[in-house]
Please model this.
Amino acid sequence: MTGKALLRIDNISKNFGGLKAVADFTLDVMEGSITSLIGPNGAGKTTVFNLVTGIYSPDTGQVVFDGKNITGIQPHAVVEAGIARTFQTLRLFENLTCFENVVSGQHCRCRSGVIACLLNTKSRREEDARAFNFAEECMRLMGIWEFRDELAKNLSYGDRRRLEIARALASRPKLLILDEPAGGLNENESDELMDKIRQIRDSGITVFLIEHDMHVVMGISDVVAVMEYGRKIAEGTPEEVQRNPDVIEAYLGSEEDEELLATLKEGAMEEVTQEAAQEAGEAV
Model:
């Protein structure tokens, strides 16, 4: 992780009628990091992602990526700028092969026009070869190369998740945004996904994700930001967030977030135990 903010979300807000979905939200995503955004359902996390990727335009504030103001630009221009994303609900071309799905992710990087395609020029053939080779690299990275000739709809849910990430990687992003990538995965699949996300980060791509699986969040994140009611209530390392009283209070009484609450309490309890052991040692 470098000392440079690749993505700077500066005081953005978004209203939907009388509902303030995001309020004065600020966050720096550091280059080379894995940054997680967590919070109860309805906290505004996906809205933040939509504001970054051009699906919505913020009412106030700005989004700066790699030193350039990208506030309110169209989604295809966001991808061209170097930001790729996946969605909470899978969005694949179900009746295309897995390989065709991944190759489609490179559309924004291909420059051959209609005439070059009609004439099948050398430059167009070379461009195709580069696209196909890179699609293979992305699929191998995500461990799905063996399914290259299968229709996307025939894959298991976990492999379809990997396919969507491979397609996003094919656009050659500097920043990869993942919206609940572990949703619907079993424990083994989540552990494998964690390894893949680390590999993506180690390849030079910064990762920004929303995730409810706290095993994943606490296991791979360099920085964790927490939202509640559209606002950021905490930010820090996983350890700092685990013991933050505002974060723990935000999840009290929420049945669907019991796992997160247990994880946060466990982290806080471990620190108390360590402090007690340290004090006992000093007393001796």
